[in-house]
Amino acid sequence: MLDIDPTGILIRYNVKLESELSTDEVARELFPSDVLLSNIVEAVFEGDEDEVIITLKEAVKAGKDPISLIDDALMVGMDIVSQLYDDGLLFLPDVIIASHAMTDGIEYCKEISGKTHECKGTVVSYVVEGDIHDIGKKILTVFLRSNGYDVIDLGSDVPIDEVIIAVLKHRPIMLTGTSLMTTTMYSFMEVNNRLLENDIRIPFVCGGGAVTQDFVMNYELGIYCEDAAMVPKIADMIIKNKNIDELREQFHVH
Ligand code: B12
């Protein structure tokens, strides 16, 4: 018989056992100090769709801007879930439930934002084929719409042909693409080439977890941006006739 202490093996493979705090306690340490925001964050963390709307309503009633709540609360909640998932403290079903609560929250904020509907320009947005991660893209469309842009949202897992057809049909000022998986992001290059074949030279703004600036620099129309909240600012520059080189100069990290 080998003299092995089994508790040592369990500790190596069970992250929970390594932490003195429970998962809830770890999460709570990451909640914001503002009670109104913290309540929303908690509701996303718990994946409680009803509570997300209740807490959002309370925050808006207290004077918080619904669009800011996306960044300041809903995304904070989802980031905590992502972090704890990456750390092995939460599991895929927890992430799915939280993402549904987050999506309901985004829809609510969009509905009640009541921001201007002047149309500054049309944008086509999509998530690459094979990829269903659409929360970032949903946030992006809310930011663009609340800044006066019409968004043709093609959804997620969108084949290249559909993207090209939509661009030819709607003639947007820019195209945005989201990819969260290293396996799916390569289709951005194909979209870039198909746009050029059709003589369409619009900025193709790409982002999402898997995407990097170095990768996006490989294709002619590509503009990289880490944060969805920056995309309306890019659009504002496009309608001021900034070209792709100027946009890269302004928005890329040098
Ligand atoms: C939520 C989530 C899911 C949910 C998706 C729900 C949904 N409707 O989106 C579910 C549970 C369904 C899921 C499934 C899977 N997932 Co998942 N998922 C995540 C998780 C935990 C969080 C992603 C998220 O929504 N974050 C919150 C949003 C707000 O962030 P975001 O999308 O990154 O968007 C921000 C920026 O990237 C940016 N942005 C986004 N889009 C754009 C676009 C533009 C133009 C710009 C400028 C900016 C921008 O702005 C946003 C904020 O400002 C990540 C882990 C992580 N840490 O990211 C894994 C992760 C993305 N998933 C992963 C994997 C592997 C999968 C699965 C294959 C798991 C499986 N074994 O089945 C499947 C894939 C199914 C498929 N075919 O797509 C991997 C991808 C690994 C890789 N690099 O390739 C990750 C990184 C987890 C990991 N560490 O392994 N997932």
From TrEMBL:
Key words of the record: Cobalt, Metal-binding
Tagged with keyword Metal-binding: yes
B12-binding N-terminal domain mapped to chain residues: 27-121
SMART domains to which the protein is assigned, alphabetical: B12-binding_2
Keyword Metal-binding: yes
InterPro entries xrefs: Cbl-bd_cap, Cobalamin-bd, Cobalamin-bd_sf, Corrinoid_p, Met_Synthase/Corrinoid, Meth_synthase_dom
Gene Ontology BP terms: methanogenesis
GO molecular function terms noted in the UniProt entry: cobalamin binding; cobalt ion binding; methionine synthase activity
Record-linked Pfam families: B12-binding, B12-binding_2
GO cellular component terms given for this protein: cytosol
Domain B12-binding span(s) in chain numbering: 120-249
Family that this chain belongs to: Belongs to the methylamine corrinoid protein family.
Record-given protein name: Methanol--corrinoid protein MtaC
Organism: Methanolobus mangrovi
